[in-house]
Write a structure and sequence with these properties.
Shape: globular
Structural class: mainly beta
Radius of gyration: 19 Å
CATH class: Mainly Beta
Largest sheet: 5 strands, antiparallel
CATH architecture: 5 Propeller
Distance between the termini: 48 Å
Helix content: under 10%
Strand content: 35-45%
Number of helices: 3
Length: 372
């Protein structure tokens, strides 16, 4: 596989290295291209093992969309998505990735290990809701100020510990996309989910990009210690541990699992189970959500995984690149694409805030077992 196409490793997709429209046709259900190593045997997708979370029921429309009059106005193939939702002082806070147009960035092979063609940039915003469904913008953009204006901040994973919130997200310098000193997971902290510290690179002195942080947390988004340490799943089967959520050490697991990138890591819901939600090529879907089971006694070794996605795109226009109110209007070149980074408990259900075509924030919910 060429460097350009190895996006699970580098964090870049074909459309960031070529023209978007040329590859839209590829981003749809295709068993040959996107099976992802799962069994070819017939599987009853309606029957889940006891350890799994699901089934999920989708809300009837997107719950959050780009604002054409705001900084997060969106751009073709990107809008408001990949955020974390947490409850604080009786309200639900959505810390989300917002996208906007930007001057074209092109890197050539003589100056970068990969050629990048990008004309967007992202920052982080905060919205608030009383019910976890109807959100209003509160503040943002948070981070692209001063010397940090050159960066794109994306894909939020936020947890609470004590009286502090810890926001992990990807930071990209598109001029140096594979330089770990410039690009990778950064950390910002807050006491109130509104005022945040300047984000700083988490993994210093490493030789490869560390991205897509998934800190193990409860359904109420409290960071969970496993064997007296906090644990973070990352790209390329990297797993990191920390005593304080600030200083992290990573290593590569000797075990592998299918499903693509980590979305969210859940614990404290069923004895010693840990579920890593994944997003990637899954049994024919370009990007769909899988689940992988781990146990407390070894957070690096998968015990089981779902052979079919628990959440996938269907024929809804807004999950296939079209405006949800005007389904003839193309707003994104993504299709057959479901990914998320935020989940929380609302009314005895797990609420998953997933991206519809990477443009809208959509909602799917699953009952907590034993709760009604």
């Amino acid at each position: 596989m060429s460097k350009k196409k190895d996006f699970f490793s580098q964090g870049f997709f074909d459309w960031q290295t070529t023209k978007r429209k040329e590859i839209r046709e590829k981003q749809q259900y295709n068993e040959k291209l996107y099976w992802g190593g799962f069994t070819k045997k017939k599987v009853d997708e309606n029957v889940l093992p006891d350890w799994a979370i699901g089934p999920f029921e989708k809300h009837d429309k997107p719950i959050f969309k780009p604002d054409p009059n705001s900084w997060d106005k969106g751009y073709i193939s990107g809008g408001v998505h990949n955020g974390s939702t947490l409850k604080h002082n009786g309200l639900y806070y959505y810390i989300y990735r917002g996208e906007m147009p930007h001057e074209l960035v092109e890197t050539k092979e003589d100056s970068s290990p990969i050629e990048v063609v990008i004309d967007y940039i992202c920052d982080i915003g905060v919205a608030v809701s009383e019910d976890g469904i109807n959100f209003k913008r509160l503040t943002g953009p948070l981070f692209r100020h001063g010397e940090d204006e050159k960066y794109s901040f994306e894909d939020v994973n936020c947890v609470k510990h004590g009286d502090t919130f810890y926001l992990f997200c990807n930071r990209w310098n598109f001029h140096e996309p594979l330089n770990p000193k410039e690009s990778g997971v950064v950390l910002s902290t807050s006491k109130d989910l509104v005022n945040w510290t300047k984000p700083k690179i988490v993994f210093e002195g490493v030789n490869e990009i560390h991205r897509n942080a998934c800190v193990i947390q409860s359904g109420h988004n409290e960071a969970v210690k496993i064997n007296n340490q906090f644990v973070m799943y990352l790209n390329n089967f990297l797993i990191a541990t920390s005593d304080d959520l600030v200083n992290w050490t990573s290593k590569v697991s000797k075990h592998k699992w299918p499903g693509g990138e980590g979305c969210f890591a859940l614990a404290n819901h069923n004895e010693d189970d840990i579920i890593l939600f994944t997003g990637g090529h899954h049994s024919g879907h370009f990007y769909a959500i899988g689940e992988v089971l781990f146990k407390y006694n070894d957070v690096t070794k998968p015990v089981d995984y779902l052979e079919r996605p628990v959440l996938k795109a269907d024929d809804r226009p807004y999950e296939n690149g079209y405006d949800y109110q005007n389904p003839e209007v193309l707003v994104s070149n993504w299709r057959d694409t479901i990914f998320f980074t935020g989940m929380t408990i609302v009314d005895n259900h797990y609420y998953v805030y997933y991206g519809g075509s990477e443009y809208y924030t959509c909602l799917a919910k699953a009952p907590i077992k034993g709760k009604k």
